[in-house]
Design a protein that fits this description.
By secondary structure, the protein is α/β, with parallel strands linked by helices. It is built from 11 helices and 13 strands. β12 and β13 form a beta hairpin. Bound molecules: oxa(dethia)-CoA.
Length: 334
């Protein structure tokens, strides 16, 4: 059976840097509060009207394809993970097919929010293993900033999220010593409304929102029960990481680099402490980009490689938790 490897990585973030101090211009917050509670110093927010989830994803994808050393015509499938698609439908996978000028290959959209990249990687891994595809383009991209409630009322959510995209080329390999060892996926839908954006949707159509014209309606902004999500995150991250390690007879000390979804620096630090990992074993860059949901892990992997923190042969663990709730992990030899 084929092994799946990540053969190329790339990321793209908008140029516009929004520092914590910039947010104090339109809400009651402070650099001190944001850094102490989340670790975030700045994030990127789109300010170019031409930019969107697909365009960022395409730029990240072009870099990943170049990094993989293949021609874009070698891509035989697209997987696109996002919670902020350009359109309600169709999903952005087809726009990537069009904008990259690819043949009429399949395009799949993944809706698993912060776990989207790891879910997408798991799908890609299965297709590669069965021999159905040879080079899958996997993208995580998010344009959050346009839809956040950037006021004091919305501050506990809006200060956290950033825009950006990351992409991977997942390829077939016959090298027995490299590749994805296993992926582990979970969900618990009873908590769906603890981190959600309800409307506009089929449960809250636009005409209903407009006819109610309720100034107190916040259903079209993301909602997060922060403390509740935090408590579940710090439990599920270590669980799903241990699940991946145990499935492969490994210990936490065997991990060369853990790349957790960048939800909150305090969550990553909590996970690091509870698993007794040292600083060199965990990669964080939420300080620069905020929480970019499905894009956070591929952006972090690409930066970790650029900084020399992932090398061939390293044992790399990815782990994510978020809206759904969904959580997931992947273990691979780079
Ligand atoms: O990626 C998907 C998964 N997401 C997560 O894992 C996020 C999990 N949750 C969190 O990261 C944290 O819960 C938050 C960062 C969202 C919030 O931090 P917290 O320590 O849980 O704060 P809190 O919501 O309990 O709020 C504490 C206080 C409140 O004021 P009072 O009621 O104590 O007077 C808030 O109104 O902080 C206030 N507050 C703020 N103050 C300044 C909330 N947001 C802000 C803000 N600036 N941006």
């Amino acid at each position: 059976m084929n092994k799946a490897i990540i053969s190329g990585m790339g990321f793209y973030v908008p140029d516009n840097v929004v520092r914590n101090a910039d947010l104090t211009g339109f809400m009651e917050t402070s650099d001190e509060w944001i850094q102490e509670r989340t670790g975030i110093k700045e994030r990127r927010w789109i300010d170019d009207p031409q930019e969107n989830t697909t365009s960022m994803g395409v730029k990240a994808a072009e870099r990943a394809i170049k990094d993989a050393g293949i021609d874009k015509s070698d891509i035989d499938f697209i997987i696109f993970a996002t919670l902020s698609p350009d359109y309600y439908f169709p999903g952005p996978g087809v726009s990537v097919q069009e904008q990259l000028g690819l043949d009429t290959i399949g395009a799949l959209d993944v809706r698993n929010q912060c776990s989207g990249f790891v879910y997408g990687l798991s799908v890609a891994d299965q297709y590669i293993k069965t021999g159905m595809y040879k080079n899958i383009l996997l993208i995580g991209s998010e344009y959050h900033s346009g839809g956040l409630e950037k006021t004091t009322r919305g501050r506990s959510v809006s200060v956290i999220f950033g825009d950006g995209a990351g992409a991977a080329v997942v390829s077939a390999s016959d090298d027995p010593d490299r590749g994805i060892l296993s992926t582990h996926l979970h969900s618990e839908g009873k908590h769906a409304e603890e981190l959600t954006l309800i409307g506009p949707s089929t449960s809250r159509w636009v005409d209903r929102i407009m006819s109610e014209n309720d100034p107190l309606d916040t259903s079209y902004y993301p909602y997060m029960n922060g403390n509740f999500v935090f408590k579940h995150a710090v439990t599920r991250f270590p669980q799903v990481i241990m699940e991946a390690l145990q499935a492969n007879n490994k210990q936490p000390s065997d991990i060369d680099l853990l790349v957790p979804h960048q939800a909150n620096l305090r969550i990553s630090q909590f996970v690091q402490r509870s698993m007794k990992l040292n600083d060199d074993q965990v990669f964080n860059n939420i300080q620069k980009y905020g929480n970019t949901t499905a894009a956070s892990i591929p952006i972090a992997i690409a930066e970790a490689i650029a900084e020399g923190k992932i090398k061939d042969g390293d044992l790399v663990c990815l782990a994510a938790f978020g809206s759904g709730f969904t959580w997931a992990s992947a273990l691979m030899v780079w």
